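Here is a protein:
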Amino acid sequence: MPVGTVASVKGLTTHQLKNLSALSTQHSALSPQIILNNAYHLMLRPGVDLLERLGGVHEFMGWDRAVLSDSGGFQVFSLAAIRRIREEGVEFRSHIDGSPHFLSPERSVEIQTRMGVDIAMAFDECPPYGLPRADVEKSMALTNRWARRSLAARTGASALFGIVQGGVYPDLRKGSAEEISSLDFDGIAIGGLSVGEPKQSMLDTMRYTAPLLPADRPRYVMGVGTPEDLIEGVAAGVDMFDCVMPTRNARNGTLFTSFGKVAIKNARFAADDRPLDPGCACVTCRTVPRAYLRHLYVNDEIAAMVYNTIHNVWFYLDLMRSIRQSIASNSFGSFRDSFLSRETSE
């Protein structure tokens, strides 16, 4: 899922996002069918009252496909200037203007429902990496209690996903997975990854936790990750991912290709008349050379962000398309091996 935190996938208009395939002769249907919005950011600005009055997030951004919303739990703990956690919920001050707010499981579900999203997330506490085990266990127990309250607060037609926590401790992850899986959620997410833990710990936790979740409901890893992470997640049994990496890296001039990452600002691309990735069918690769992409980037042109974002989002969507295709043809194992062992330089 491309991340549209504040109802916008950074670098692209809604029309561009829906029409990524416009100039391609391959995979004409390759465009996102679902994106992620964020309840925390949208409740602060423009506010849920205005969003509801304007017809919800779909009408607001002109998006006629699915939207999944993050509950705001992660942002409360990562962005809020001051916060106080209690059983009822979290008191915090906005990172924008310092204004006081309160989020509880009930309030979070209400906000997401009024936003009109298709998939809402239960409100959870996301502990940072490095906390003592006892604190992680306490946080996990609170998340589990809040999960039950989130379910009880559901009133709309949105699907609702629960979130498994437990840090990097296998027994805590197992306990949380059993608790959340026993509840009537429409899907289940693995939260609390990519919060500062070593890469291997993230992969180990994902590989351990995903198979513990019911196979008859979508499994979603939140905030992950690199192309290699997605492939390893699928191998573990994960169905859904979101990450800001495609768009953030695009803005920083780092582009994903079939032969590894490209830092387009490098001087060696100044006179390079080749497409960024000759095997890619996106608009960027089919219409402009590397030299032009570098020229735009080093001159801080807005078009650099647009071209780069089109390519990176396309790359991720095409990767997932290839994964689905390999699963359908019973060849995912060989696809995985080939991708992970591919040549990563020109």
